[in-house]
Amino acid sequence: MKRLAVPAAVIAGALALAGCGGSGDTKAEVSVSSSYMPQPVSADLAAGFLTIVNKGSTQDELTSVSSDAAGSVTMHDTVGGAMEQVSSFAVPAHGQLVFKSGGNHLMFEKLKRKPKQGDMVTVKLEFAKSGAVTVEMPVKSATYTPSTGH
Amino acid sequence: MRKKTFAAAALLAAATLTLSACGNGGDDKSPIAVVSEESGSAKAATLLDQPFEKPDLVLTDTHGVKYDLRKETAGRPTLVYFGYTHCPDICPLTMNNIAVAKKALPKAEQDALRIVFVTTDPDRDTPTELGKWLKGIDPQFIGLTGDFSTIQAGARTLGISIEPTTKDKNGKLVSVHGTQVVAFSPKSDEGYLLYGEDATVDDFAKDLPKIIKGANP
C-alpha cells in the first residue's frame, strides 16, 4: 500500500505543479517571520504585524491569537480606513498571510504595561491544523517600517 | 483548425488565470506603492492644482477651550489629520512620523508649525483623552474634538470622507480615520499638499522645511 502511495503522491504533486507549483507535501506547514510591534502610545492599545508562510499543500487557518502581555488580542483587517474584527484568517497552501501596517493587523488591548522599544512580547498563535506557534515579537520604534528597517 | 486554435487559446487563458489566481496568497493590494517604486524618486506629497480652502472648523481643544482653526492657524504652516485614539495602526503611525520629522527642525520652526489632529470619534475622544494620547506623541500637537457632524463636514471640504463610530456584530466600537494628511501653506492658508498613509518619517523630514516656507517640496 505504501508503495502505491508514492506514485500517487507524485501525480498529485505534478497536478499541484500545474496549478500552483507544489511540493507534494500534503500537510499545512506554517512558519512565522518579520514580526514586530511598533512602540504604542500607551498601554491601552498596540498593534502587531507579522508574516505567516505556509509551505505545505493544505490550507491552514489562524483561529486565535493571545499574549500574556495583554488582556486581549484580536485580529483585524482594514477596509477603507475602517478596521473590521475577523474571527479567523486563512493561510493558503503554498501561500502566506501578511499582517502589515495599513492592512491586516493584530490588536493588543489592556496591556499590563506599555511595551518599549527593545522589549519582546510573547505571542501565541493558534492554527486549526498546525496547532500552537509561539512567537517572540520585538517592540520596534513607533515609526518603524519593515521597508526602511527603522 | 480554427477550432484547435481557439481551444489552445482557451487553455492558455485558463493557465494564465490559474497562475494569477495562485499569486503569493498574500493580500498585497498596493498598486500605488508599486508605481512609486518604479519611478524611484517619487514624491510622497501630491501637489494640488486646486488647493483646498482651510475648513471653517470651530471645535474644542485638549484643554477644553474653544479653538477656531482658521483664526488660530492663520499664517502658520499647518498639517491637519483626521483620526481617532482607539486606532492601533495608521493614526499613531502617521502622528509619530510627523513628530519624529518635526524634531529635526530648528526650535523656532517647530514652534511655528501647527499640527492639528481632529478626532473622528468625538464620543470616546474627549479633550482629556485626546490630550493624554497626544502628549504621548508630541506635547505641541493640537487635538480637536466636538460635534461629529461638524467634524465630518469639515473633513468633506478637504475631500476626506469619514463615518460616525458604529458598533460591530461583537458590540465593539469601530471608528474610521481619514487617509490623508493635508498641509496648509503659511502664505496662502490653503491646503496645497496631500500625504497618503505610506508617507514616512523621511518624507516629512524632507518636506517640512519647505512647508514652513509655503514652498513646493
From TrEMBL, chain A:
Q: Which residues form the signal peptide?
A: 1-18
Q: Which UniProt keywords apply?
A: Signal
- InterPro entries, sorted: LpqE-like, Lxx211020-like, PCuAC_sf
Database matches in PROSITE patterns:
PROKAR_LIPOPROTEIN
Q: Does the keyword Signal apply?
A: yes
- Domain of life of the organism encoding this protein: Bacteria
Recorded hits in PANTHER family, A to Z, give:
BLR7088 PROTEIN, COPPER CHAPERONE PCU(A)C
- Protein name in UniProt: Copper chaperone PCu(A)C
Organism (species): Streptomyces brasiliensis
TrEMBL record, chain B:
**GO terms, molecular function:** metal ion binding
What pairs make up the disulfide bonds? 87-91
Which residues belong to any copy of the Thioredoxin domain? 48-213
Q: Where does Cu cation bind?
A: 87, 91, 177
Task: Give the keywords, sorted.
Answer: Copper, Disulfide bond, Metal-binding, Signal
> Entry's CDD domains?
SCO (cd02968)
* InterPro entries attached to this UniProt entry: SCO1/SenC (IPR003782), Thioredoxin-like_sf (IPR036249), Thioredoxin_domain (IPR013766)
Look up the signal peptide feature and give its range.
1-21
Which Pfam families does this one have? SCO1-SenC
Q: Which family does it belong to?
A: Belongs to the SCO1/2 family.
User: Under which name does UniProt file this protein?
Assistant: SCO family protein
